[in-house]
Amino acid sequence: NAGVTQTPKFQVLKTGQSMTLQCAQDMNHEYMSWYRQDPGMGLRLIHYSVGAGITDQGEVPNGYNVSRSTTEDFPLRLLSAAPSQTSVYFCASSPPSVQLGPIFGSGTRLTVV
Amino acid sequence: LAKTTQPISMDSYEGQEVNITCSHNNIATNDYITWYQQFPSQGPRFIIQGYKTKVTNEVASLFIPADRKSSTLSLPRVSLSDTAVYYCLVGSYSSASKIIFGSGTRLSIRP
To answer: Which sign, positive or negative, has the C-alpha torsion B24, B3, A107, A3?
Structure first.
């Protein structure tokens, strides 16, 4: 059971480039989310999804797109990378029970130069 | 989700008991209280969750008073490896809810 898998682990982009951060979970969780964490800061919610075909914005959605075509996958797309998007990105998924919180992936460290 | 307030940082020494308090004045009836631990360069890790009174597991205890407007994470006999950021979350974690993290408490353990 792999849990939440994020790829790549590290990425360097040039300003204006686009890319997709991948997130996959094998736990059949309906709820998935993306967070970013800047150095020395807490986690901020970018987008989340309550099930296949349903997505919604979090606290800091600008500059990012998401889609949820399957229960397992929740990719995060950067449309035109900016230095302000340099951060560590965490994907999480949540089981259906109200008694458990989200389970996190190991993160993608993104640098935009 | 209910807003939470935690101390920004705390210091302690190895072998001591550490208590981190979280305030959540607007907690709803269906909300649970969950604590996460995060080490540098890693994703947050679930520590403990509770609804009321006291919950204990192999790594921590969680104390919740009757009014549920605050909670205290207790780490017994801390070691250097407990140096991390600790987040308090309050919510029902239903499939329709946003899960928002606060700023967390940076705990530093000294020898």
So the answer is: positive
